[in-house]
Fold this sequence. Notes:
Elements: H1 14-30, H2 38-58, H3 67-79, H4 84-103, H5 124-130, H6 135-142, H7 149-163, H8 168-173, E1 179-180, E2 186-189, E3 198-201, H9 204-220, E4 231-234, E5 237-241, H10 244-257, H11 269-280, H12 285-292, H13 297-311, H14 314-326
Helix pairs in contact: 1-4, 2-4, 5-13, 7-9, 7-11, 11-12, 11-13, 12-13
Amino acid sequence: MTTTITPSPNNLPAPTVDVLDRLAGFLRLNVAEGDASEHTIRAYLTQIGQFVNWCAEIGIDPGTATDHDLATYRRALAQAGYKRSTIGVMLASVRRFYEAAIWRGLRQDNPAAGLKPPRDHTSRRDRILERYLSQEEVDTLLGAPDWSPSGIRDRAMMSLMYYHGLRVSEIAALTVGDIIPGDHRQLAIREAKGSKDRNVFLIEETAGLIDRWTVERAQIANDKSGEAVFLSLSNNNYSGPLSIVGVRSIVNGYLKDAGLYRPGLSCHALRHAHATHALMGGAELKAVSWEMGHANIDTTGVYTHVADAIKQNPAEFLRRTTQEESE
């Protein structure tokens, strides 16, 4: 299926339209070494479409835009309130647009090359701490769903995200065939970020929830359900495999209903909590890195600093000392 984007109604020069028309094919060949998912392709095209429309609104031809124009676009994104990480992703998409233009022989340079998002002086450790869920908060969240079919499904999804560190995309991509039976129940994670396949060992709680949901799923699924483990339900009726957006919406809804939601917090906080709590409990960094599917153990290492910041809080030592002196 060829995906297209609709440019602004303003008339764009033929070379720019030519690049837009051929962009999806270029992305399929050049993103993730030709193995990018349709979700990734659509995200690139949406962000490029946003850039093209911004150019049209302020009278810039995206086909001949300069590095100064791209810096102006970056400033506009920052002023619009986009997070630094989001701006970085959007600029990466624009770079792909100009790579396609060079590929088509329509430009000789990439004005977005080397353009970085605005500087963020907040450390990654502190950014994670801002989205940290305590053990009590996690317990509240995992216990929020009821025991209806949709509630069992939601308990299973959130437990996989917390106990095993699964990403939202991995939850949505799970198939029935990924559930591996045996004395040591496992899940095969085959659609992980960066195509880093791995198996995770289920604990009793998550295996039990998967079993309960599998029973409910068998009564709901039909010939349109495919192999997706988690299905979208409307009034307990099947309506299709649960999408990434659907998983996010469900978990974020529980965060809000439980009074845990705050700016910057999302369902990804369960994954942060998985790493932080596991390391605080004594798990080895290498094991946590593998469980989370990190390509580089240094990515996981920041959670060690988060765990240490919580465990080694000087205020807690002072509080305990004060209490001992008063007894």
